Amino acid sequence: MPLGFALLLTAGGVMLGRGGIDAVQLRLLGVRLGQAAVAAAGVQILAGEYGTGLIRATLIVVPRRWSVLVAKAGLLTAGVVPVAVVGVGVAVIGLPLSDALLRAAGESVLHLILVGLLGLGVAAAVRSSAAAMGIVLGLLYLAPMLLWMLPDPDWGRFLYRLTPATAVQALTTTVDDAGLPLGPWAALGVVAAWTVGALGMGAVLFQRRNA
Amino acid sequence: MATIEVNGLRKRYGAAVALDGMTFTVRPGHVTGFVGPNGAGKSTTLRTIIGLDRPDAGTAIIGGRRYAELAHPMRHCGALLDPHALHPARSGRNHLLWLAASQGLPARRADEVLGLTGLADAGRRAAGGYSLGMRQRLGVAAALLGDPPVLLLDEPFNGLDPAGIVWMRGLLRDLAAEGRSVLVSSHLMSELQDMAGHVVVAGHGRVIADAGVDDLIGEYASLEAAYLELTAGVGGIR
């Protein structure tokens, strides 16, 4: 269900036409909306079971908790990949093919996969849909705004580069990227680091805690 | 046949001690009652045996192995711990079909246990609409799915109507008579007196008494009198 929204929101970028300085970035604005729905899918695939109590049945059936998490991650990725590929593909349809376009589109797909897994990792750590969504949405949208309020602008600028929100801006930009806080591949690295961190913490807590 | 060996389980939640060296063995062939005041650690012990709770120390072994080491755990140990652990939109039958598939069991096992638990008709309805008694029956159906030699049931009489209680009593006694190890936690001493061959009395996260029902009745006149005498002064909720 959230993945349906993700497809619509991501593909919706195609409506934004080809005007502006960076047509690719404009078209890929949908990724910034679609990532929320992908994150919701990642959260819901695990936290939804805590909401209904089904998780206890699941863990009785599959007591090896690593297997549960790996299976959920695999299922989630299998769902996100076609959504991301089709969504991003539709969004950039008709634009002149270039290396920069392919790079931005490919990174957008990878970004969406990573954000889904980020949602799964956070859900494993906090075990509640509402709390996990709050954390993920805060990270994706609120964090960059809050960082500009830091009293020390140098620190603010430094931390700003480390948020996934900055990353999605950087990795969809194809024109005039000199003024960006970090390069496109470094940006994907930032998102990957958040995902690995969240999944790692989630896995350890999921493994050790009571169901 | 398989036994349940609980050995020195310890568990604390912050300052509260839930399990304080819980140790007992459940043997096949008769129902073992697991009794004690609220907060004595019965549910935590059962949850620890099947790996839902992580103990701070100690082990729980089913037929020689930890639950989490079993490839198809429901074929070794059936558990009814939380009758609400199901997907509310899924029908009872689909719930069982999902469980059966996960354990490499044929789909017909789902229909067999539905018949055995009196849910043949209700099995097609969404489980979210089931009464507590029906959820208990579905939980028993799930526990029996893999035809396991070990059964754990937490308060299985809750929510059952009088006919259901009689049915449950007979079922558990028959399952034990077939040579299974059956551990039943309950507050209903009169039910256990008729059904159980052995009783483990818990308090403060430890075993207070571990004895045959006939021995306790011989000493205290009834299981209820024995329970009240043994747990006198054992405050449950701390």
Automatic annotation (TrEMBL), chain A:
Keyword RNA-binding on entry: no
Positions of transmembrane segments: 33-52, 73-97, 109-126, 131-150, 185-206
GO MF terms, alphabetically ordered: ABC-type transporter activity
GO cellular component labels: plasma membrane
Any Pfam family the entry gives: ABC2_membrane_2
Keywords: Membrane, Transmembrane, Transmembrane helix
Protein name: ABC-2 type transport system permease protein
Organism: Paractinoplanes atraurantiacus
From TrEMBL, chain B:
Keyword ATP-binding: yes
ABC transporter domain mapped to chain residues: 4-229
Gene3D superfamilies in UniProt: P-loop containing nucleotide triphosphate hydrolases
Signal peptide: none
UniProt cross-references to InterPro entries, sorted A to Z: AAA+_ATPase (IPR003593), ABC_transporter-like_ATP-bd (IPR003439), ABC_transporter-like_CS (IPR017871), P-loop_NTPase (IPR027417)
Keywords for the protein's UniProt record, in alphabetical order: ATP-binding, Nucleotide-binding, Transport
MF GO annotations: ATP binding; ATP hydrolysis activity
Protein family: Belongs to the ABC transporter superfamily.
The protein, known as: ABC-2 type transport system ATP-binding protein
